[in-house]
Design goal:
heterodimer; A: 147 residues; Aldehyde Oxidoreductase, domain 3; 6-stranded antiparallel sheet; 4-stranded mixed sheet; 3 helices; B: alpha+beta; Ubiquitin-like (UB roll); 5-stranded mixed sheet; 22% helix; globular
Chain lengths: 147, 80
C-alpha cells in the first residue's frame, strides 16, 4: 500500500498486513516528529503538505524500485499530511522479505528516496513563528522571507 | 494560458498557491519562470533551490510547455 493520509498512522495494522508465510523478516521504519528548542522558543507541531497526485505516484515508484532491486514480498509506505504533533509518526515504511538483509536495506532505501524525490514539505510551527524546513523561509526572527 | 501551482516555501513567498500565466505554446519552463518571478519578485532569491514539474513529473528548465499543462514549483522536498 502506498498512501498519503491525514489521520494518525496505525503502525500495528501496517505490520499485520505485511505478515506472509513466505517471508521470514519484516523491517519497519517509522519517522516521528521531533521537537526542538532555541533561544526560549520551542517547536509546537509540524505541518506537512504534499503535491498530489505526484507524491502518490513517487511513493509507488519507490516501491517499484525496491521490487526491482531486492527480493521482497511486500512494501508499504504511508505518509501523513496536515498537523502532526511531536512524537507522532509522520511516515511509516514496512518491508517484508524472505530474509532480513533485504528487508533492512530496502526500508532504509525507501526513507532516503522519500527525502530526495517525493514532493512533500513540512514546516515547523514554533511558539514564535514558523519555518519551512529545507528552505529556511518563514516568519521566525532571523529567517529569510520574513513578512 | 498555463496553470502554475506553488508549494511550501514558494507558495509562502509568492503569497499564492496557484496562478495562471499568459504563456504561448512551446514556451520553455525557463520562460514560465521569468514571467512568474516578474509577478512575484519575492520568489527570485529561491530560484537556485527550486525544481519544476510538468503534469506531475520532474522537468528541466528547457522543457517546452503547452496550454492545459499543469506546472508545479517545488522547493526542496522535506518529507519524512
Amino acid at each position: 500500500m502506498f498512501a498519503i493520509v491525514e489521520e494518525p498512522l496505525d503502525v500495528g495494522a501496517l505490520i499485520r498486513d505485511a505478515q506472509m508465510p513466505d517471508c521470514g523478516a519484516i523491517a519497519m521504519f517509522v519517522g516521528t516528529t521531533r521537537t526542538d528548542e532555541s533561544e526560549g522558543a520551542a517547536v509546537e507541531y509540524l505541518e506537512y503538505e504534499a503535491y498530489r497526485p505526484m507524491a502518490d505516484s513517487k511513493l509507488e515508484e519507490i516501491g517499484a524500485e525496491i521490487q526491482g532491486r531486492w527480493d521482497v514480498g511486500h512494501v508499504s509506505i504511508v505518509h501523513r499530511v496536515g498537523r502532526v504533533d511531536p512524537g507522532e509518526a509522520s511516515v511509516a515504511i514496512v518491508v517484508a522479505a524472505p530474509r532480513r538483509g533485504p528487508a533492512f536495506e530496502a526500508s532504509r532505501y525507501a526513507i532516503e528516496r522519500i527525502k530526495e524525490v517525493v514532493p512533500i514539505w513540512k514546516r515547523e510551527v514554533w511558539s514564535d513563528g514558523y519555518v519551512w524546513v529545507g528552505s529556511q523561509v518563514g516568519s521566525r526572527e532571523g529567517v529569510s522571507g520574513k513578512p | 494560458m498555463i496553470r502554475v501551482l506553488l508549494f511550501g516555501a514558494a507558495a509562502d513567498r509568492a503569497g499564492t498557491r496557484e496562478t495562471v500565466l499568459p504563456v504561448e505554446d512551446g514556451a520553455t519552463l525557463a520562460e514560465v519562470w521569468s514571467l512568474l518571478a516578474e509577478r512575484h519578485p519575492d520568489l527570485t532569491p529561491m530560484r537556485d533551490t527550486l525544481a519544476f514539474a510538468v503534469n506531475g513529473e520532474y522537468a528541466r528548465a528547457d522543457t517546452g510547455v503547452s496550454t492545459g499543462d499543469e506546472i508545479a514549483v517545488l522547493p526542496p522536498v522535506s518529507g519524512g
